[in-house]
């Protein structure tokens, strides 16, 4: 027999979007249920693997010293637009960037003694950010929501979003511990993350071979809630064929590897098995390239490439993966130890690159800023930090691309209302975070996933509360 539960608001998903939505809804005296597909010990989606939250430090009204440069909401907006090639939905980008300071202050205020880290952990992390441990953040906030009276349902796999004859969304069908349960609600907020952890959907949207890509985040983000919303008329939005695919250690676990990036590649070179470069390693700050370079690496032979640095910059490499770095006293030896297939071409590529570097570049080297030291005359330039690789020992790191999150989702308005395929809001249905599309295209500015999800979680709850109160 189908069990039935009734709430003012049902939130599907227990990542930062769901927690932000649930907390804000409860603050407005609404009864709230949060449905989480994972068991309690695995709750929190991709959010549990995160480490930084992008905020406009210049606009934050808190008694805190940030060690990263002043960064305003308009800088944040510009970065989103720049890295997405100006394809990000203007209105959504406006909401995320303008509301981010207030949302962060609210979360901090509600978090009591939660310790955000205000110091950047590695060189080259310049844009406004705070640092955190995602799993600890989830464990900190869930009890705060429970104290607000919110009911959490774990192993609650939402599969259906149901509309009444008048078109209004009136319930969510979920299997809780395998039992079919109908969650009736005046408003429903979808915060169930993306579909990137599904092998089948990676193959469907990115192509052959992508089913084997390593998954950095939660195994539970397989996108059924997006499909359920589309089944009742929600419009799909965003770049379905693209995703945040990060540059990670080639030895990372197949799933739920978390933070296994190798940062600092921008100070060296990246070669493939053919011994060729294939990206401008110094194109921009790491936070503006790592999410797209992973896909470029995955497209190379054997889905693998190799970062190579010399002793001048090795201390600026942040190696967070499980594999051991490989060292050697010559490039030739290093390339052989890394098992790069075309050794001759790899050595030639490094020699050509060295000749294209300015001989004074090392004196002007500054890992904290785009130092403008670029190569001269190479068809594929290196635009910043172009130092010759000439000081042994040399160090190499095998890397691959890791699935972080998919960019497609349901369409929302700036008030987080889910749109149907005629661009009309579906009554009673809201969405936030990675379940939505339209903000990220082609690339992604690091730290923005949490901000987007937290901001729109709060906005969704405010819109839902207004709707619920207007119905009573
Ligand atoms: C390894 C890694 C590191 C990252 N680091 C950062 C970072 O440092 N900074 C940053 O800003 N972003 C980072 N991101 C991106 C960031 O995690 C996401 O953008 C953000 O957490 C999205 O939040 P969300 O609440 O929308 O989704 P999620 O946190 O993924 O939450 C989705 C929730 O929905 C649940 N769910 C899924 N399907 C169902 C269903 N059918 N029924 C019920 N529940 C369901 C999931 O179990 C989960 O609890 C990282 C991602 C990964 C994978």
Give the helices and strands, then pairings.
Layout lengths: L2 E10 L3 H12 L4 E4 L16 E3 L18 H11 L6 H21 L18 E3 L2 H14 L3 E3 L2 E8 L5 E8 L2 E12 L8 H8 L7 E2 L8 H8 L4 E14 L12 E2 L5 E3 L18 H9 L6 E5 L8 E2 L6 E3 L2 H7 L5 H14 L4 H4 L29 E17 L6 E3 L5 E7 L16 H24 L1
Bound molecules: flavin-adenine dinucleotide (FAD).
Describe the structure.
It is built from 11 helices and 18 strands. With 472 residues, it is of the alpha/beta class. A hairpin with a 2-residue loop joins strand 7 and strand 8 (179-190). Helix 1 (16-27) runs parallel beside helix 11 and helix 2 packs across helix 3 (90-110). The protein is elongated, with a radius of gyration of 23 Å. The two termini are 30 Å apart. The mean pLDDT is 95. The site of flavin-adenine dinucleotide (FAD) has 45 residues, from helix 1, strand 3, strand 6, helix 6 and strand 16.
What's the short story on this structure?
The chain contains eleven helices and 18 strands. It is α/β, with parallel strands linked by helices and 472 residues long.
- How would you describe the shape? elongated
CATH architecture of the largest domain: 3-Layer(bba) Sandwich
Q: SS-based structural class?
A: alpha/beta
The main sheet comes to: 8 strands, mixed
Tally of structural domains: 2
Note the total helix count: 11
Overall average pLDDT? 95
> Could you give the distance between the termini?
30 Å
| Small molecules held by this entry | flavin-adenine dinucleotide
Which regions have little confidence, pLDDT < 50, spanning 5+ residues?
none
Q: Give me the strand/helix succession.
A: EHEEHHEHEEEEHEHEEEHEEEHHHEEEH
Number of strands: 18
CATH level-4 homologous superfamily of the largest domain: FAD/NAD(P)-binding domain
- Helix proportion of residues, in percent? 25-40%
* CATH class descriptor of the largest domain: Alpha Beta
Using only CA atoms, what is the Rg?
A: 23 Å
The CATH topology of the largest domain is given as FAD/NAD(P)-binding domain
Strand content: 15-25%
